[in-house]
Write a structure and sequence with these properties.
Layout: E1 5-6, H1 9-26, H2 37-51, E2 62-69, H3 77-91, E3 97-101, H4 109-112, E4 120-121, E5 130-132, E6 135-139, H5 154-166, E7 173-179, H6 186-194, E8 199-204, H7 208-223, E9 228-239, E10 246-248, H8 253-261, E11 265-271, H9 273-281, H10 285-288, H11 293-312
Helix pairs in contact: 1-5, 3-11, 7-8
Function: Iron-sulfur cluster transfer protein involved in the assembly of the mitochondrial membrane respiratory chain NADH dehydrogenase (Complex I). May deliver one or more Fe-S clusters to complex I subunits.
Cofactor: [4Fe-4S] cluster
Protein name: Iron-sulfur cluster transfer protein NUBPL
Length: 317
């Protein structure tokens, strides 16, 4: 039996602040007043280089990790991550699936997965993931009030991310889908440098400005030696309610980008109100309307992801 207790926000913040202060003091370099400014700078640079990159490690009993990234915000990344995770459980019912919301500042998983509880803490001081629709979930949104903003600096954010990744009792997982924040910043770099990532799924809309940012994200993963599973093109078309004709909204530039990057467009998801309604109601479209064209698109995406991950294998320490 677990000796469990609810994790309260005040306890979480106190723990994260303490961790951040320890990390800051650990790497704080003292300056020798007898040295010149140039000598002190060189000593500082040598210390940083001596640290090197952190050693990658696996999350205990988690076989494969897939990052869902977008570079640009507002392109449907979280919607894709949530529907992908639930679709993976549908197409591979014998597999165990986890979903981590790594967006500390703007967590979306609590609403989209209809989970509004706080996690329990077991006797090893690990948080127990919350489960809905057969998917194990963890999010910063479970630890804060729905209306409370997270106003933190970098060290606090990285400490929170570490706790969400490494201080969760995930148990045995075949797939862990990580919904990352927009951009190509600290969160992505920290995840890739510290964990064995099986691949990254890029989400974009066909707009030129979104594709430009997606290109940057793809190049980031290329530099970090993370395989790109492919591209998901969101809001690619809209269906006329009268004649049921599909109308392209933003052109066909995604095809050119895919060719440039040497990857496939794994799925084109149309713009449809049922997808938004499913996300807002906390019941993903793959569950609320399982036979719809939109749900089938996400399930086909899940099948593509399963094939991709099967080719990557499981990376060891």
């Amino acid at each position: 039996m677990f000796n469990t207790a609810r994790l309260h926000l005040s306890e979480c913040l106190k723990y994260l602040r303490y961790s951040g202060q320890r990390q800051h003091s650990k790497h704080n370099t003292s300056i020798d007043p007898s040295k010149t400014k140039q000598e002190s700078l060189q000593a500082r640079q040598q210390e940083i280089m001596a640290r090197g990159l952190p050693k990658r490690k696996r999350i205990k009993d988690v076989k494969q990790i897939l990052l869902v990234a977008s570079g640009k915000g507002g392109v449907g990344k979280s919607t894709t991550a949530v529907n992908l995770a639930t679709a993976l459980k549908i197409v591979e019912p014998r597999k165990t699936v986890g979903l981590l919301d790594a967006d500390v500042f703007g967590p979306s998983v609590p609403v989209m997965m209809n989970i509004h509880e706080s996690p329990m803490v077991n006797h090893d001081s690990f948080m127990e993931p919350l489960i809905n629709y057969g998917v194990k979930c963890m999010s910063m949104g479970f630890l804060i009030d729905e209306k409370s903003p997270v106003v933190w600096r970098g060290l606090m954010v990285m400490s929170a991310l570490d706790k969400l990744v490494n201080h969760v009792a995930w148990g045995s997982l075949d797939y862990l889908v990580i919904d990352t924040p927009p951009g190509t910043g600290d969160t992505h770099l920290s995840l890739v440098q510290n964990l064995f990532i099986a691949g990254a799924l890029l989400v974009t809309t066909p707009q030129k400005v979104a594709l430009e940012v997606t290109r940057r994200g793809a190049n980031m993963f290329k530099k970090l030696d993370v395989p790109v599973a492919g591209i998901v093109e969101n809001m690619s078309t809209v269906t006329c309610p009268k004649c049921m004709t599909e109308v392209s909204l933003f052109g066909n530039d995604t095809v050119s980008l895919a060719k440039e990057l040497g990857v496939d467009i794994l799925q084109k998801i149309p713009m449809h109100e049922s997808i938004a309604e499913g996300s807002d109601s906390g019941r993903p479209i793959v569950l609320s309307a399982p036979k719809s064209k939109q749900a089938e698109a996400y399930k086909e995406l899940a099948e593509h992801v399963v094939i991709f991950l099967s080719k990557q294998g499981i990376k060891e320490d």
